[in-house]
Design goal:
Two copies of one chain form a homodimer. Chain A is an alpha/beta fold. The first copy, chain A, has eight helices and eight strands, in the order E-E-E-H-E-H-H-H-E-H-E-H-E-H-E-H. In chain A, helix 6 links the parallel strand 6 and strand 7. The longest helix of chain A is centred in the middle third of the chain and has 15 residues. Chains A and B meet through helix 1, helix 4 and helix 8 of A and helix 1, helix 4 and helix 8 of B.
């Protein structure tokens, strides 16, 4: 147990398997700001760990270089707040590796919750998920997709779906960085 | 009046006058993702207009090129959702120009609300500002700073300050993109 608002929660940003705009399953590229922005949001709400997930070796090396830059030497001295956030980041090949790592770290059942822009049957509300996370009996992994969103094959493997962010305008094409920030705030912000 | 959740609200992202990490007043550079992410968040919540403010001619030209790319020709066809969001963007030299433009567009008093990470006396709560915006008698401009935040000289010129985003961890170094998303959701998301 932890006293941090989101201490029973980790995040995973998946670069595969996700859709492109033609609904083909692709591997997207790691981007600098996905690492920084989501790490800073994760740190703000007290998230346990932020997994950056890609099967591509070179992309993992790039992500490691970015996080190392701010954790060692010049970057760490220049901006310790970034170091503080980026130490939550773990770069890893696949969702199975995330689950394995979480199982090692938390001696509790791991529940996987997919996020996305589509309405799906049986989705948890923010209140329901916040309550489950507060109970602290299980550790919750919130999974975010890059590109045009997580593939359907991934939805077949998870425990829960979180309801999409709706604001009543009919437009819900937030960046994954903005969506992650809003979801953390809805779950743990008050 | 409008039926959009944030129809009585505009946003301004200021690249001057803002602090750098040494608390010197500087002009920051326009970044691609500040334009995209905040435009997409603004569109999601039905914000009236999103002003990108910089006194530097070349930086305004860059911002105009980015928004034009997605509004005309190839970019608009490739991703109409971006076009939809970026048409809210107006690139402009200074806060006075923003106020002048807003006065032309809205025949109502304009109220300027500064956002930031510091606690300041007399700050409005999210509930208070949401209520004011819903009343629709005045148009509200939410001002965001880049770099290390809006300068004190700017705070002397505004009508209200919005309370910072606090999550109980003592860390509040969100990116401006994430902060804008969370603030819009707190004000208009439910």
């Amino acid at each position: 147990m932890t006293s941090l608002p989101a201490g029973n929660v980790s995040l995973a940003l998946l670069h595969y398997p996700v859709y492109n705009k033609h609904r083909e399953i692709v591997t997207t590229a790691v981007t600098n700001l996905d690492l920084h922005d989501i790490a800073r949001s994760a740190r703000t709400y007290g998230v346990s760990r932020y997994y950056v997930v890609t099967p591509v070796v070179e992309q993992r090396a790039l992500a490691e270089r970015i996080t190392a830059h701010w954790q060692e030497g010049w970057g760490a001295t220049y901006n310790p707040k970034r170091q503080d956030a980026l130490q939550l980041v773990k770069v890893i090949p696949a969702l199975d590796d995330v689950l394995h790592d979480l199982q090692q770290r938390h001696d509790r059942r791991i529940r996987v919750v997919a996020t996305g822009a589509l309405q799906r049957p049986g989705a948890l509300s923010y209140q329901e998920l916040a309550k489950l996370c507060r109970q602290g009996e299980e550790h919750y992994l919130l999974v975010f997709g890059t590109g045009w969103g997580l593939s359907d094959e991934l939805f077949a493997r998870i425990d829960h779906v979180l309801e999409p962010i709706e604001a009543g305008t009919g437009y819900n094409h937030l960046s994954v960085r903005s969506a992650a920030a809003i979801i953390l705030d809805r779950l743990f912000g008050r």
